[in-house]
Amino acid sequence: MGLIYSEPVCQAAYDSDVHRLYEHLKNDPKLLNVQEDTTGDTPLIAACRHGNKRVVHYLLDNGADVHLTNKKQRTCLHYVSRRTFSALDYLMICVLMPILLLGYFLMLQKQREHQAVMDELLSSSVSVDAVDYKGNTALHYVCQRGSHRLVPLLLRQSADANVQNNDGETALDIASRLKFKKIVRLLNKAQ
């Protein structure tokens, strides 16, 4: 279950296999920013799709370009912003919820990991207001997902809450439409 890349270095990044990633980059350092043929994903984008902080950290430490976009004009930050729980995560949370609230703690841990990956990217020179082919920024996506923990991280990096996507919606419009009151308060406070 997951993505299959034709570029082995992208696959290693997506699979969170730091050892294999190290071997690929040791043999050919130019692969650090290679783009996969079909999607245009780079190893950093692949790592962000999967959400592994250790791999993202490793790639950033080695100089991966955070500004590269794939064929959907999305950067690595777009994918961190779009990330949600996987079907397996939801299943584990539901099954473990009645058992001493283990599901709740699993959910909190996944949210912390997601926040850590976002922090890691925001500590680089990534553009927080980059738009994809739909005109969405990272702030649009975290508002669509109701990620009230990630909105303040983007706002601290001066994310522009007034950017309109191709449908003419700002992040505030999306949060209001979806009735995410906490996010609406955060965005109003930032303006």
UniProtKB/TrEMBL annotation:
Keywords: ANK repeat, Membrane, Transmembrane, Transmembrane helix
PANTHER family: ANKYRIN REPEAT DOMAIN-CONTAINING PROTEIN 22 (PTHR47276:SF1)
Record-given protein name: Ankyrin repeat domain-containing protein 22
Positions of ANK repeats: 39-71, 134-166
InterPro entries: Ankyrin_rpt, Ankyrin_rpt-contain_sf, ANR22
Keyword Membrane belongs to the record: yes
Transmembrane segments: 90-108
Organism encoding this protein: Scomber scombrus (Atlantic mackerel)
Superkingdom of origin: Eukaryota
Gene3D superfamilies: Ankyrin repeat-containing domain
